Amino acid sequence: RKTYLSPAKKLRLSKPSKSAALHVDLCKATNSTDALQYLLQFARKPVEAESVEGVVRILLEHYYKETDTSVRLKIASLLGLLSKTQGFRPDCIVDDIINTLCNEKSHQVLAQLLDTLLVVGTELPDSPAVRQRLVQVSCKHLSDTYFGVRNKCLQLLGCVGTVDAPLSKDVRDVQSIISDYFGDQDPRVRTAALKAMACRLLSDDYEQVRSAAVQMVWVLSQLYPESIVPIPSSNEEIRLVDDAFGKISHMVSDGSWMVRVQAAKTLGSMLQVSPHFLEQTLDKKLMSDLRRKRTAHERAKELFASGEFSSGRKWADDAPKEKLDTNTVNLIASGACGAFVHGLEDEMFEVRIAAVEALCQLARSSPTFAEKCLDFLVDMFNDEIEEVRLQSIHVLRQISTHITLREDQLDTVLAVLEDSSRDIREALHELLCYTNVSTKECIQLALLELLKNLNKYPTDRNSVWKCLKFLGSRHPTLVLPLVPELLSTHPYFDTPEPDMDDPAYIAVLVLVFNAAKSCPTMPALFSDHTFRHYAYLRDSLSHLVPPLRVLGLDPVDSGSASGSVESAQLFLQQSLNRISTIQNLEAPGAQDLLNFTIRDVQRLGHLQTQLSGAADFCATYLRCQLLLMKALQEKLWNMAVPLCLKQNVTATAAARQILEETYKLEFLYGGLENRQIATIHHVRLQAKALQLILSARTRQGLDPLISSCEKFLQEIEAFQRSFLTELPHLHDSFVDKLLELKPRISACSSVELVKILQTTLRQSGLLQLRLPEQIHRATATIIEPTGESDNPLRFTSGLVVALDIDATLEHVQDPQNTVKVQVLYPDGQSHVIHPKPGDFRKPGADRHRLITQVYLSHTAWTEPSQIEVRLLLSYSSASSSLSSSKHLGWSDSSDGLQSPEAVVEGTIPFSKPVKVFIMPKPARR
Amino acid sequence: MPEIKVTPLGAGQDVGRSCILVSIGGKNIMLDCGMHMGYNDDRRFPDFSYITQNGRLTEFLDCVIISHFHLDHCGALPYMSEMVGYDGPIYMTHPTKAICPILLEDFRKITVDKKGETNFFTSQMIKDCMKKVIPLNLHQTVQVDDELEIKAYYAGHVLGAAMVHIKVGSESVVYTGDYNMTPDRHLGAAWIDKCRPDILISESTYATTIRDSKRCRERDFLKKVHESIERGGKVLIPVFALGRAQELCILLETFWERMNLKAPIYFSTGLTEKANHYYKLFITWTNQKIRKTFVQRNMFEFKHIKAFDRSYADNPGPMVVFATPGMLHAGQSLQIFKKWAGNEKNMVIMPGYCVQGTIGHKILNGQRKLEMEGRATLDVKLQVEYMSFSAHADAKGIMQLIRMAEPRNMLLVHGEAVKMEFLKGKIEQEFSINCYMPANGETTTVTTNPSVPVDISLNLLKREMALGGPLPDPKKPRTMHGTLIMKENSLKLVSSEQALKELGLNEHQLRFTCRVQLQDPHSDPDTLHRIYTHLKSVLKGYTIQHLPDGTVMVESIVIKVSSSAEDPNTKVLLLSWSYQDEDLGSFLSNLLKKGLPSGLC
Questions:
Q1: Which residues form the domain of A816?
Q2: Which residues of chain A does B191 touch, with a Cβ-Cβ cutoff of 8 Å?
Q3: Which among A1, A559, A709, A858 is least buried, having the fewest CB atoms inside 10 angstroms?
């Protein structure tokens, strides 16, 4: 080994006073605590580059003498600090450190020495010889028993090893060495190994590798978010999740857009990151000619705070202020700095969308971040791609619980109301529903802009009203001071009564009434006509105008409407219970009871909107029973066949109607359980039995009868198969009785079968209906066309005209496959149009919006005439069969599923038809 | 050591007349050939006499590459090619080739027709010059000659702006021209792959600036225009014909479309119409949005923007007018400004920098009374706004590009010296690579360490194959015998026979002989026989012959035995082998030095 203190060196060393002083100090130190104190003092002072080497020698000398590990540890860390001194080439001390490494016994000191080597390695990136030595050293110590040492070795390997150059024959390439440690028994070592690998791959040449590396870093950060990692080149330590966040943020400015998308998406899911790092992502230190500049956002905020509004009048308005120290400016910002600023400005809209989504996720978990990212999201409202604009509006809505908009921000948001895209406007209305604003000026501003919007796009009426409803109910105290102005009342003079049909006036009233709901002092400010208008609107637009406790108005109306849901439910249940007293279908008075119950239930549905689905369902079911009852009580059963043709016709019609109703029951209502479906199928079986009996009576010849009998038997079997679990509940029902007689039925002739059916049908009791938790009826409302237009849509016959359709669907599952548009022409022609899946939007849970165009065409007419447009819900019995797990679209299902039952397909109209005036003109020559 | 030399003739620590000479692998390339806006004398053009004092440049330059159509990058091109004289290839992208002559012609008109200068290039010269241009496509590798190849990358900045990757053998240089790392409304962001060039020559206009998000600027701009229009005011936007004008047009056009606004937008005619035509054609050079939607509608076919007529300025009602030139110093924009200046409802928005002395500069500095010619004064009542839309990379963008390309050295041009100094420090600190910033006429030399490719003759390879051994693996080095011939700049590895034949040399035989003394109490022939049997047992698989003339031959090695004169028991073995059998020969001599085993008969 070399001698470390050759006399010549000593001579040179004695010159710098600092090192000499240290030397003296250390020699004086009698015990380790003293020495440690001296070292700590020394570490606080800076050392000039030329004396570093001398100091290092002295430190090493003491290192060899020292027996106390803590002092050795301190010296080792000092060595690392010293090697970072500017202008000092640490290659001369590499050998020394490696030598000490070989003699060291303490694991902690070993780890610290390796850390020092790591620093040296990063300082000397261009010296392959040093790198190779370092790699060898770290490979040697990889077999250490202490995890910290192995950890440091892997870090060192990751830092100094190069990807492409296999270092030497006996040393395998770094990748494989590192990957060996993926299986280490200590999780901390495994983490270090993975990290060393992943961080190096982040700068790989190939985008797939980088993309995978991003994912790997992310996985690591999720697995060990709290482990502490050191930052190379400084001796700070941060949480792993923060480090990973910084690294991934860096990838947001990668060269490949695929990687950028991935990085932006990944950032969104790193919720554990500390707020300090998170906020950096929105910070891009602006400077101009080396002077710190404030961002436009900051300026806007200050202007707002100072009360001044317009900005940018002066040329050098954004003139930079303070002078920056060139050393502190970090151009490749370490870590997260400005990641989102870059992501949101990216060239590819995919990256921008990913960044917006990530912002959303992060903001939802951190209110302070939400406040900060607001400005950026608002800026995105001005993106060139509509999808991005829409997405950012949605995101703002999702985080709106955390934020309160400032006036200037609201101003920018409201500017988007003039957008010509309906989706954007509606998304914005939705956003405003959930927004908190801070001042009454904001409310005024919002109202003003919404009215402007209403004026420009009258079709937005409903959406604007709804928006104002929420705005009013959220900010009653802010609306209160505005009321006189809004209603243009005057303390002394009567003002003219506004036009009741003016949508803008209605909009104002909606705002005021909703605010008044939780602000009892407000109605005092109303004038007489306001109360009248209230009464009118409360009737005509009851979903927008809440019940108010208004003096002089009859409060009974509002009182009864707000009857509790529980009592209504109870009533429904009682009605159903009453029905169950009916023993069998021929019991006297049963029909009357059913009739009354149906009436009651229907009325209940109207009163209590929450139960309307359930009430409708019950009523329909009971109506089926009633029909069945009536059909069975016809006199025809006792008469000879030829005499009762007419009655036969009504009975047949009843059977058909019951069948139709059962399909409605099954497919139009959401939330049904297996039990209800069994009940519905049961009714259907009864109807089919009725049909069979009727056809046996009317039709001559046995052959068709035999085949329909067989079909019926098959259906019974299918029923038994599918509802095996439900059979116990069907006690004493039609099916139950049939199944009892099953051996007899399957053996007997068809004539006999008909007879058995007839008697069981008449004797079987009424099946009790049990309601599930929630039943929703699928409904559709066509908003456009309104059907009010008197101007016919003129077009040349033989060519097509596009008709815009806008409808809202509620409680429709899978509307893309089931909802169709039917067009009925006056000549009886009907077209069914299947809208594109893209035409369906989902603005909320259980709600869909269909905005589509249907093409109409017809030969020439002499007069304009009306066509009918309505929406159909298509169904297929195969899709409901419980055995089939996941059915295909209804049109494909018939060939896809070979169920024994014949697949029944059909459509149920579920919206009110709308009439459209059209006029195909003959083509001009 | 091979070197790459870079000498800026213009744009070295300066902005304007970009012209950079690069010598790489024996090739000389001129990058850009621009003029300086600030001078009207000889300093306007780069000093081509640096290349040669007398006559034409053709033999000194292998090619000229123009990065984009701005005059400070291509303004001196006709002067260089037609008046100084250059007939070699000139490379530029398709859009640059299309738009460049329009700008050159405009430049010529202003200098010759308006300022009355003589000794300037003519229209014909521009045409002749453009005939020498070879167009480039993005990412297309073009072989200038057998060794020199160039490849263009997208640079943003203006339509058709490109960065060029120049490669000779394994040495390479990337020149960025002007570029922009943040996309705007009509162009995308610059992009380059990790080509690891030896030198990256980058512009550094905004070396010390980090810019605010462009969305804020856009929003501000749109808000101002919108407010003014709603008030019923007229908005004047003075622009230069190409570049920013198109960006702002798109911005306003889409805004009008989105907001369903009805107020007319006009664009003063002239250069613009011609240029807009090219913007419509070169869709592939624009950004994602325009590229994706042009099938439905070409964004440059403006629906709301119409050509301006002088009479429209007096029309009542709100309107927006784009008018040239950008600094309000002359022409249509000034005329309109005079008409509208009196009404406080109106607004003028300056979208770019204004040179001192122009009206634009004055009003931006808040002057409210302007003196016009003929002692008339003009009260400026309209609102004056300033908006900076600039398409150069800022400091962060430059660093981002360095990270993308991973160059070994960095060279800054097209910027101010002080600002470059700062960036240089940062680059050296962050990437620990060398960074240079030569002044005009100063040469930077960078030594490179290229790998030298060598041709290997097929025969030699086949022979190597025939010798057996593992099959060649492209990832592993392998040693073989051969002769390296360096002839006329090319390197060849051939077998020695072929080398002799090609060079017309006689083969020299080289034989090694050595004497080995051996203690052996036998007669000479016996000893020889003993040696023969010994070798036979040791060297299996070699041909060993005992020749009747008293020698043993192992392959081509001859062994003779003679007794020493003094002691008959000491035998002297004479070994002789040729250079080719050196391995076997030295093995044999070592073997025989150990003596013969006693057990031999």
A1: 778-879+903-921
A2: 255
A3: A1
